[in-house]
Design a protein that fits this description.
The complex is a heterodimer. Chain A is mainly beta. Chain A has a single domain, classed as Porin, CATH 2.40.160. Chain A has one helix at residues 2-21; strands at 35-47, 53-66, 69-81, 88-104, 107-122, 135-149, 154-164, 179-191. By secondary structure, chain B is mainly beta. Chain B is elongated, with a radius of gyration of 20 Å. The model of chain B has no long low-confidence stretch (mean pLDDT 84). Classes of the chains: A mainly beta, B mainly beta. The interface between A and B is large, with 36 and 37 residues.
């Protein structure tokens, strides 16, 4: 019995000794200037001026040029919706702007503003002379989101974007086409600065 | 087109996260940015507001004087029956009211000149249209919100007066759309509100080491 006690005591002490020799764990923070983030995902959007949901393939890139600021570019390509006769027949949106960030360790939150444009066609184009014409529409967007950087190469993100759009030159329809878009998923990141 | 896209992508890389090196004062600072424009009203019976997108670059002349070179593309509805499109390309001088060159909020007075092309068109009958190329002068006030040493968000309001012939639309009670052109209507124009994002890239006259 005494032998057993000694063995147990040695086992406990040795584990403590090994633990004491481990190198201190260093937390790694990835959120710093030079961080480049990019991804592509499927984003549903709710149209605020009509009862429709659209689905976009969304891509964005973001470059952190200051501890609290990033440039951000976004592209949204319409792939479909929940209506048989959707408002947009085709739609591609492009936006470029800046984001203001608040970061705690590897958790990052942001809010931003992006001027942009939309190249679109309407399904029910009421302008008789310009059937299905392609239109270039000035737009802007504002977004808010969060990102959690889990590794030096990828992150999880969630983002809400308000897209302001008014289509011109279409008669007898209400042509506000604002949307709220939700994007979420895995993003990819590298840091260009060591 | 590819070259332009590559250049646009590379611009943020030129000086990201680097301190801005300036020689003596802010003279020579070159910055670049994008902006959204709201045209608050137009002349004629249909005074509908419009919205546009554009860009600008700035070359600063001294601590208190800056120049802005811009392009805007603006579309406005003419009630439900037509569209007005305005293209503006021009420049402005900006005079900073405060002496301090690096405050968080930096108000300025702005005035300048631009060339413009406007087209008014009826939606159902595009052959019913009117267009005009002219020059214009604009003046107003604005302020930078300096988010960092290099980046500012600028809010500007200015009135643009077209110096050439005035064109505008009248929508009659029966829905008929009529365009009119008048000579020498000096005060014809629109109130423009810009929200811009601008990034200082380099001091052009400073030594780059």
């Amino acid at each position: 019995m005494g032998k057993t006690k000694v063995i147990v005591l040695i086992a406990l002490v040795s584990s403590v000794m090994v633990r004491a020799q481990e190198e201190p764990i260093q937390e790694k923070y990835y959120v710093r200037p030079g961080l480049i983030t990019s991804t592509a995902t499927i984003s549903p959007s709710i149209m605020l001026n009509r009862n429709q949901i659209n689905y976009y393939v969304t891509g964005f890139w973001q470059i952190r040029f200051h501890k609290n600021l990033t440039f951000r570019g976004e592209g949204h390509y319409l792939t479909g919706g929940n209506k048989d006769i959707p408002y947009f027949r085709n739609n591609f949106r492009g936006h470029f702007g800046v984001e203001l960030h608040k970061s705690v360790k590897n958790f990052d939150s942001y809010i931003g503003f992006m001027p942009g444009f939309s190249v679109l066609q309407l399904t029910e184009d009421r302008s008789l002379a310009d059937e299905q014409m392609t239109r270039f529409v000035p737009t802007f967007s504002a977004n808010i989101g969060v990102t959690y950087y889990v590794w030096k190469y990828f992150n999880f993100f969630a983002n809400f974007t308000y897209l302001n759009t008014t289509v011109r030159g279409v008669t007898q329809t209400y042509n506000r086409a604002d949307e709220i878009m939700l994007s979420a998923g895995i993003g990819f990141n590298i840091n260009a600065k060591r | 087109m590819k070259l332009l896209l590559t250049a646009l992508l590379l611009i943020p890389w030129i000086g990201y996260s680097q301190p801005l090196k300036i020689k003596k004062n802010q003279s020579g600072l070159f910055s670049w940015g994008v902006r959204t424009t709201i045209s608050a009203f137009n002349d004629g019976s249909a005074k509908n507001p419009g919205m546009g997108v554009g860009g600008q670059f700035r070359i600063q002349a001294s601590n208190r004087l800056n120049t802005e070179w811009f392009f805007d593309y603006i579309t406005s509805p003419i009630d439900d029956v037509g569209t007005r499109v305005d293209y503006h390309i021009g420049w402005s001088a900006m005079y900073y009211i405060l002496k301090n060159p690096t405050p968080k909020v930096r108000p300025y007075i702005i005035a300048g000149h631009c060339f413009d092309y406007s087209q008014l068109k009826e939606t159902r009958n595009p052959s019913n249209k009117m267009e005009r190329g002219s020059s214009a002068v604009q003046a107003g006030m604005g302020t930078h919100f300096n988010l960092s040493e290099r980046l500012d968000i600028s809010l500007t309001a200015q009135y643009m007066m077209h110096l050439g012939k005035d064109i505008h639309a009248h929508v009659h009670e029966n829905g008929e759309l009529e365009f009119e052109k008048h000579k020498g209507s000096l005060l014809e124009g629109h109130l423009l509100i810009h929200v811009g994002i601008n990034y200082k890239i380099v001091d052009l006259w400073g030594k780059q080491k």
